[in-house]
Amino acid sequence: MADIFDVIADGTRREILQLLLRRSSEAVTGTSVSQIVAALGVSQPTVSKHLKVLRESGLVTVREEGQHRYYSLSPEPLEQVDDWLVPFFVTEGDFEDVAELGAPALPEPAARAAEAVGRAAASAKNVVQSALKRLGA
Fold first, then answer.
1. Alpha-carbon distance 19 to 31, whole Å?
2. Most buried of 40, 65, 84, 89, CB within 10 angstroms?
């Protein structure tokens, strides 16, 4: 399986993912290759090649109906990217308020759990901020 960063490095694949994300937010249950071709203005063989890479990486799923194939976004593999990026957005200063309270050190399992919760919160914050930027808010 290709490295997720290699998969999303390609601009056409990112455009396909963005299109599938938009369509999923519109409650569309799948997007055909011909719809992707029309929306992006790229050739059918090019779209099919990129969809194969996205499918093999687990970023899209395919539903077959007769001769037609409908693709949907499956964002779970992007969690690897999110996990890698979060430390760049979380700084030591984000936790200064807690340190100033003089809280005792946590046992190691609790510290790991707290770190995981903090990363999840930072990730959620980043997702919400990105969504708000896209909406122009």
1. 9
2. 40
Kindly give, in sequence order, each residue whose CB lies less than 8 Å from that of residue 33, ignoring residues fewer than 6 positions away.
Answer: 44, 47, 48, 51, 69, 71
Contact 66, 72 (CB under 8 A): no
Amino acid making up residue 124 = A
The answer to whether 84 touches 8, Cβ cutoff 8 Å, is no
pLDDT tens digits, one per residue of 21-71:
999 888 888 999 999 999 999 999 999 999 999 999 999 999 999 999 999
81, burial (CB in 10 Å: exposed 0-12, middle 13-18, buried 19+): middle
Whether the CA torsion 12, 62, 28, 58 is positive or negative: it is: negative
